[in-house]
Each structure stands twice: as structure tokens, then as C-alpha cells.
Amino acid sequence: SALLSESLAASPEQILHDVFGYARFRGPQEGIVHHVTAGGDALVLMPTGGGKSLCYQIPAIARHRSGKGVTVVVSPLIALMHDQVGALHEAGVSAAFLNSTLDWEETQDVERRMLRGEITLLYAAPERVTTPRFLSQLDSLHERGKLSLFAIDEAHCVSQWGHDFRPEYRALTVLHERYAGVPRIALTATADALTRADIVERLQLEEARQFVSSFDRPNIRYTIVEKKDATTQLLRFIEREHEGDAGVVYCQSRKRVEDLAQSLCDAGLNALPYHAGLDAAVRQKNQDRFLREEGIVMVATIAFGMGIDKPDVRFVAHVDMPKNIEGYYQETGRGGRDGEPADAWMAYGLQDVVNQRRMIDESPAGEEFKQVMRGKLDALLSLAEASDCRRVRLLGYFGEKSTPCGNCDNCISPPQVWDGTDAARKLLSTIYRVQQQSGISFGAGHVMDILRGKATEKVKQYGHERISTFGIGSEFSEPQLRGVLRQLIATGALAVDAQAFNTLQLTEGSRSVLRGETQVMLRESVSQPAERKKREKT
Ligand code: ADP
Ligand code: ZN
User: Fold this and answer.
1) Roughly what angle, to the nearest 10 degrees, separates helices 478-490 and 350-362?
2) Distance (Å) from CA 202 to ligand 1 centroid
3) Ligand minimally distant from the alpha carbon of residue 389
4) In 198-296, which ranges are E strands?
């Protein structure tokens, strides 16, 4: 039988061609496939659509043909398991899955075939893989030398710093401890430096070779606009650029999903809602329609998208800001998987900053965790406030150096920047003086009223019209000051206290702005005072 398996053994190139029908490997696939087929451990970071599946499927087939037995694929998503197993069957590869959709008899049947070594790739959910029953079956395979390879898909799920932490992934260390000689390949489409280090540590991949692809998605055009009326802005964007196209619109809350889906429908678009609070049947129906019909706009929370492989999504819009760059990258990455041009469009405003900061502050997590989350949020905020190439910053966040892309809003029409340092100093000193005078802090609206010299009831009630900065910022409009505040908060030069009615608080970072050591540069969208006056006259 050794001779028989020798004769059946095929090179990875042959398998790529004969089984999958592809002429050549794409990018780093070749190196990964050879390394893993030869029994090496690997950590693969490759963007969505890059072709991760073949990186373990071809080694699995090659190793099975040379008598090494079964590859176990750990995957968190039932829908994805079904798709992959279906596609492998069509290619003539023996594959199966074990998950909650099988009944007892079907489960036993799969297990029997696995134990006989008939299955090349077995897909299983992480919680299944680590059960005593399954582990004893793996023991049996291992004793007979028929446990070939472990592939751990969506490996970022092991990290609590990632955006999709799944505690079941933690238990996967047992694979390494129990079957030390069996090679392992872990794969993910998203991991910044911190998440990457966490994957290596948690899955004990210190010895694994790392294959890091470029995370660039050159066909995606990134645009981030200042939020005014998100619904109207979104409608205008879709009408202007994506009439009749399929797209996904991400919102922060279920209520917002429902309202926005309704507004889009009222405007004549083919929009459907999707969030975890909807009936499972409704969710399934909406998802199916999105996949099958043309030109559906899915309005969704982040519950939608993972494992949904629709190649011709032409735009991904965010009407609320996500938590961090990993989330943003993952969600926008669902556009343009076919390689054709696609838009990543986001509307972002002061309220987003305040909301995200508040969510972190109010979460029950420990202080260390909150600090990490704040750092990740800050990175996203600086991407949103940037007036240089978005792609350079995005890729830079994943540790990749690049040059201006020519395919983002800032490259296509470089924003005018104006010096908002004066406005920033006036705002900060107003906040300081109000705090000194009244012993309590106030919110953005009140502070702006004082600076612009509006003697409202509240201003008079506290005697704030007597503060020395009252009216010294009358040349600034409210939107301009909001822009300045947003950037001060985004850069940490000002804090919002969610526990105290969203009042503004000075920080360590306020000092250098107050002293004039830090410049505050603002994008043109927050137009300069002079320009604004000119426009008002005409
Ligand atoms: P990922 O899991 O990284 O998002 P997939 O493994 O689903 O990506 O692959 C994305 C698409 O690219 C699939 O349609 C796949 O068949 C195709 N593909 C992968 N590798 C190749 C290749 N070497 N040549 C041609 N097409 C490929
Ligand atoms: Zn650019």
C-alpha cells in the first residue's frame, strides 16, 4: 500500500490544476502550500478574497494522498463550512463537517468515515473539536499515524483584542499539547500587531513560519466624509455613484438599522434590514435575497457579513463609526471581492467620537482592556481626521509601508487644511475659565454659546456672559467649532465625561494646545471663517 500511495501522490501544482482547475498559485499561496505540505507550521495573514482556503486544502489533499490521513479544519461559521464542503465535493474531494445541523446518525456516519481515514478534510466548530469524545477519536487516528494536519481558520477569534473574540478558541491549545507532532496552519484576514502577537501566544505558534500578505485592496476607494445628515448624505452617495448596485450599510444599533432601511425604501431603494434581534427566519430570508437578487442594499449591524461571500458588493457604507481599524477594514473588505472597483464610504461626526468613547468607559471590562480599546479607537479617529492618503494610513496600521494611492478621497481631491489652532485655544480656555468660575463642567453646546457670545438663558443663569472669553469667538460658526472640538477629542486634547452628562474636561494633552505648542489643522469640510463669510454674502 506504500507503493500505491506513492503512485497517487501528486505535487501541489498538479492538485491546483487537476482538482481546482487553476493555472497558477496566487501571491504567497505557493510558498505556504509547499511549507505546510512538507509538515511545517504556518501563520497566514491574508486579506479577504486572497485565497486562504487553498493554503490548507491543497496540503490536506497532498498529505492524504501520501497516506498521512485526515486534516481537521476548525471553522467558527456553519454557513461557511457548508459552502466549502459543497465546493470540495464538486471538485471530487472527500470532505465532511461536524456541527449542530447534523442529527445523531449523520454524526456517527461522519465519525466512522473519519476513523477509517476516508475523509480528506473534516470541518468542525471549535467547541466540537475540544470535546472529550472528539479528542478520543483524534487520539485513535493519531496512534495510527492518520492525523495529518490542523487548519485553524479565522484565527483572530482567539484574541480578545480582535474584533470577534470567541472563548472556544482558547481551548484549541490542546491540539498542540496533545498532538505536538501534527502540523498546524492558522489563518486570518485581519490582525494588527497586537492581535497577531496574541494569536502566536495563545495558539503556541512561536515556531510557526509567518506568511504576511499585503493587506492592500487596490480596487476599494476609501472616502470619509463629515457627518451632517447621514441619511441624506447616504442617499445622495448611492444615487450619484451606485444606482442599482448591491451594497451594505453598517449602523451601530438595531433601531438605527430599522429606521434607515425604512428611509431607503421610502426613497425607492431596494433595502432590507439585518440585525441579531430579527427573527432567524427573516434574517435568513433577507440574507438569501441579498445573495441572489441584484441591487439589494443591506442595512445591517455588524452581525451581518462574516462568511458571506458575495463577489459583486459595489459599496460598503458606514453611517456610524466602527470601534477600530480592524473592524473597519474587515467590513469595508466585503466590497469588491471580484476585483472590480468598489467604494468604502463613511460618514463620521463628533457624536461618533463621543459614543465610542462612552461605550469604552461604560463597559464592564478592566482598565487595561479599556486602555487598549482607547488606543485602537484613537487610531481609527486619526484615520478619519487625516488629510493625507487614507490607504497609506490604513496599511500603515497593519505594519505595511506604502505610497499615496491615488484612489482615496484625499488623494483624488486633496482637502484644503486650515489652521484651527486659534479656535482650539479659545475653546480650551473657555472650558478652563467656566470650570474655574462655576466649579463644574459643561457640555459642548454651552461652551460654544459662550465663545460665540450668545447670551442664552443658561449662560445668564450661570453668569457666564461675564467670562473673559465670552464672544471672542464670534467669527466661528457652530459647525466650525464642532469640527475643532471633534479633533481635540479625537486627538485626546479634550475629554468627554460620559458619567457626567457628556461634559467637556481638559486633559494633559490640552496644555500643549493652550500653550500654542500643538497646531490643530482642520480639513476644509470645516470651512474657514473667511470663506464662510464670503459665501454668506453671495
Ligand atoms: P479567502 O478565504 O482568503 O477570503 P478564498 O479562499 O475564498 O479567499 O478565495 C477567494 C477566491 O479566489 C475564490 O473564489 C477562490 O476560488 C479564488 N482563488 C483562490 N486561489 C486562486 C488561484 N490560485 N487562482 C485562481 N483563483 C483562485
Ligand atoms: Zn490615497
Assistant:
1) 40
2) 27
3) 2
4) 209-212, 220-226, 247-250, 271-274
Ligand 2 centroid, distance to 409 Cα (angstroms): 7
* Cα angle value 384/386/390 (rounded, 5°): 80
- The protein residue whose alpha carbon is closest to atom 26 in ligand 1 is 22
Residue 239 has what DSSP assignment? Answer: H
Cα of 22 from ligand 1 centre, angstroms:
10
Q: Work out the mean pLDDT of the chain and round it to a whole number.
A: 90
pLDDT bracket for residue 375 (50, 70, 90)? confident
Which grid coordinates belong to 364?
464592564
Strand partners, 147: 70
Q: Are strands 494-497 and 503-506 parallel, antiparallel or unpaired?
A: antiparallel
For 353-417, the DSSP string reads HHHHHHHHHHSSS-HHHHHHHHHHHHHHHHHHH-SS-HHHHHHHHTT------S-BHHHHSPPPE
Decide: 445 and 452 in contact? Cβ < 8 Å: no
**193 pLDDT higher than 70:** yes
Does residue 387 register a pLDDT over 90?
A: no
The number of residues making up the chain comes to: 538
Q: Is 54 in the pocket of ligand 1 (CB under 6 A)?
A: yes
Q: Coil, helix or strand for 188?
A: strand
Query: Measured from the CA of 22, which atom of ligand 1 is nearest?
Result: 24
Task: State ipTM.
Answer: 0.98
Any ligand 1 atom below 6 A from CB of 15:
no
pLDDT at 498: 65
313 neighbors 217 (Cβ within 8 angstroms): no
- Tell me the pLDDT tens digit for each residue of 210-225: 999 888 999 999 999 9
| Interval 445-457 mean pLDDT | 96
Prediction pTM value: 0.76
Q: Is 328 exposed, middle or buried (0-12, 13-18, 19+ CB in 10 A)?
A: buried
Bridge-based pairing state of the strands 184-188 and 42-45:
parallel
Q: Residues with Cβ < 8 Å from 446, sequence gap 6 or more?
A: 434, 456, 458, 459, 464
**Which amino acid belongs to residue 431?**
I
Query: Shortest CA distance to 224 belongs to which of 317, 300, 304?
Result: 317
Rounded to the nearest angstrom, the distance between the alpha carbon of 401 and the centre of ligand 2 is: 13
Quick check: helix, strand or coil at residue 299? Answer: strand
CB atoms within 10 A of CB 195: 24
Compute the CA torsion angle 525, 531, 535, 538 (nearest 10 deg).
-160
Give the C-alpha distances (Å, rounded to integers) separating 537 from 509, 530, 531.
Answer: 38, 11, 10
Q: Grid coordinates in use for 401?
A: 509601508
Measured from the CA of 153, which atom of ligand 1 is nearest?
2
